[in-house]
Structures are given as structure tokens and as C-alpha cells.
Design brief:
Blueprint (H helix, E strand, L loop, with lengths): L14 E6 L6 E6 L4 H19 L11 E4 L8 H8 L3 E4 L9 H22 L3 H4 L4 H13 L5 H6 L3 H6 L21 E3 L13 E3 L1
Parallel strand pairs: 3-4
Antiparallel strand pairs: 1-2, 5-6
């Protein structure tokens, strides 16, 4: 289900496409520049490929997404519908203006907005209205990752596990799952400037951000 951040961010994206797995409640979020079916279809392909390859590396168990459910929006017709059919995935559609038909992702969207707002306010303070929209899709994406590392279902809360651990059958936490150091939004960092992007031989090699 795509959200609308009202305007494009600094990276050119405006619509976070969010999806939730039924059994594990693992969520995925990919920013899209447009809401056209062809763009949404590409994001769907990326999410499907990532999920299946990480859940079942090398395809040894034959794991694959079997069903997709969405609202009847035009972005889910055309190219997206064809892509789903090519992948032999069962395509189901909810009714118009009936959000309960897609309750999992609708509930997720609400939580992502709440978490992303808290992240933005923490990082940007009184300037949140000036800068938050520049990183809207990225805020939603990282809010989604935070949610993936918190127990959601009754079973997960009982066992002390998370959607990430249940989906990928591991014990990874948010600080170990990505192979990089995870810093809170607002933390002072320095990012590397690639050689091809420097103005000259003596130009700075890192920038404070």
C-alpha cells in the first residue's frame, strides 16, 4: 500500500510502498518517485526478490510469495498486475474505501507515521517542518526497520522474538542485522565523498552531516 508524503524528498521519492507479511508481520518499505503502475511494479519486484532470497538463500527450500492483497487503486493495475501474474502469484483485491480489507498494512502505515514523526522531531527539533519532508520516504523506511525488530504478534511477545527473526530464522537484532553501525537519527556523522565527486585534488574527502 503506497503512502503519499505530499511532495518529493531530496532523493526524488514521494510514495513509500509498504507491505507486510501475514505470518511473521515482517514489513517492507521502498520509496517510489511516482504512483504509476509501472513504477510500483518495479518496487514490488525488488521487495519480492529481496524477501525470497533472504528467507531462502539459493532457493533450496523453494520458498516464494504465493498471494498478494491490495486495495483497488489504479497503481495496482496494468504493469503491476502483469508482473504478479508473471510470477504466478495469486492476486486478491479489497473493496473500495474498506480499509479493514487490508488491515495489516493499514495498521502498519499508522505505526510507521508515528515512529517516523518521533524520529524526525528528535533529529530536527524545531526545524522538523523545514526538513522532514526532504527525507520522508527514508524516515518511513527506517521506521519500518525499527518495527521489524520489535515483537508484534502474541506469539512473538510471548517468546521474545521479532518479525525479522521469525521471517529469516535467525537471532539478529537491529544493531547486528545490517552489517553496518546503526546510529539514531540526529547523530553527528561524517560521510565519504567519492573521488569522482570531488572538485579537485585537495578537496575535502568527507563531509559533516
Amino acid at each position: 500500500d503506497p503512502m503519499d508524503m505530499k511532495r518529493k524528498g531530496a532523493d526524488g521519492t514521494r510514495y513509500p510502498l509498504n507491505a507486510v507479511m501475514w505470518r511473521t508481520r515482517l514489513g517492507m518499505s521502498r520509496g517510489a518517485s511516482e504512483k504509476r503502475s509501472s513504477v510500483i511494479a518495479k518496487k514490488w519486484k525488488l521487495m519480492k526478490s529481496w524477501l525470497e532470497s533472504k528467507t531462502d538463500p539459493g532457493g533450496k527450500m523453494g520458498y516464494q510469495i504465493e498471494t498478494i492483497r491490495h486495495d483497488p487503486g489504479s497503481e495496482f493495475l496494468g504493469a503491476l498486475k502483469e508482473s504478479v501474474q508473471d510470477d504466478h502469484v495469486h492476486d486478491t483485491t479489497g473493496e473500495v474505501d474498506r480499509h479493514s480489507d487490508n488491515a495489516l498494512v493499514e495498521n502498519r502505515n499508522g505505526k510507521l507515521q508515528t515512529i517516523a514523526t518521533a524520529m524526525a522531531v528528535h533529529a530536527m527539533g524545531e526545524h522538523v517542518d523545514d526538513y522532514a519532508e526532504d527525507v520522508g520516504c527514508n524516515l518511513i523506511a527506517w521506521a519500518n526497520e525499527i518495527q521489524n525488530h520489535l515483537p508484534i504478534t502474541k506469539e512473538q511477545k510471548k517468546m521474545g522474538t521479532t518479525p525479522w527473526q521469525c521471517q529469516f530464522n535467525n537471532e539478529e537484532a537491529i544493531y547486528t542485522a545490517y552489517g553496518i553501525e546503526i546510529c539514531p537519527w540526529g547523530t553527528l556523522v561524517y560521510f565519504h565523498i567519492k573521488k569522482k565527486d570531488r572538485l579537485g585534488k585537495l578537496s575535502e574527502r568527507a563531509h559533516r552531516g
